[in-house]
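Listing S7. Sequence submitted for prediction.
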Amino acid sequence: MYSTDMQKDRYLTPFIVEDLREKMVFVGGPRQVGKTTLCRNFVATHFSNHAYFNWDNRTDRKAITASSWPGDTELLILDEIHKYRKWKGLVKGEYDKLKETYKFLVTGSARLDLYRRGGDSLQGRYHYYRLHPFTLAEVERIAYVSSLQKELPIGKGSHQSALDTLDAFGGFPEPFLKQNTRLLRRWHNEKTERMFREDIQDIEAIRDIGNMKLLSDILPSKVGSLLSVNAMREDLEVSFRAVSHWMDILETFYYHFRIYPFTAKKIRSLKKEPKLYLWDWSEVEDEAARFENLIASHLLKYVHFLVDYEGHKAELYYLRDVDKREVDFLVTIGGRPWFAVEVKLNDATLSPHIPYFKERLSIPFVYQVVKKSGVDKIEKGARIVSAGKFLSALV
């Protein structure tokens, strides 16, 4: 059983503290991923005094709109302020006027990199981080090692217990730490209901919220497969435009993410169809799809960290050609392949698609990741390795 102390020092803590010394920091991420806990706990350690304001609190709203800040505070934390229509202008004005007096930390359960667009530009005034759920390297307290465009620093430990717990309960702090299946089910229901009732409707005017909820109910069954908006439109008996709009909104609020095929003439690749995954993989009932989602989430967290902190142009794709050869994931740096990952539950026999894509695209490193422990071998230039070992090399 993991301790609640894990929440006090999340993987982003030292990097946010470092960046606050020169600019504002924005932290986005899904509801209940631990943004407020992260901010208020690391503040207590690294700053002499701080003030916390939450837009959902009436008293705090009045203070924010009146720019009423404590005089003895070193850091201002503005939580969920993106729900205020004029938040960009307010934050820009306060920062420009008071940046020599205060550090500014802004958090939100929607994608702040989208809501910053338009109006007064905040560009150049902040660093943006996306806070992810717990992953294996984080719960095992494995320090991040930069290995850009080199082979991943895969360790010797199996980490099977951590992997099994993450697979069963997901990486969101509350259900992961409690490890109770009944509480997990209740947590799923409450999280989704609050996302629709409080978060989405505070930002977007949705006329058919009932069908949008139905859409969120069917998405877990679509994990890992090519996503057809038209098929979901037919299921829900609504327009293509409505489903597409709802999908964009749910992605903005960190319910799901989509990855797209890597396009290259050498492999006659698919052009458009994305694959879908959930930020909370514990909602996925099918074991194989849930495990693929777990790996996808770990890779996305790693890619986001490379972008948000390291500043690299990193992307996560999948590989599939018109002849239906497929490899689940490809990580690129600056548009060039770095490593590919194929996911299997128990099959340690090398997929023939891995060496095919490795040769055609000159992919430096390729991995076949299996759920069962005790696997680690090299075959045809590919490393077939247990998931616990592989995931220890990420963030």
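Caption to Listing S7: primary sequence and predicted structure tokens for the chain studied. The CA atoms of residues 11 and 138 lie 6 Å apart. The chain has two domains: 4-130, 136-391.
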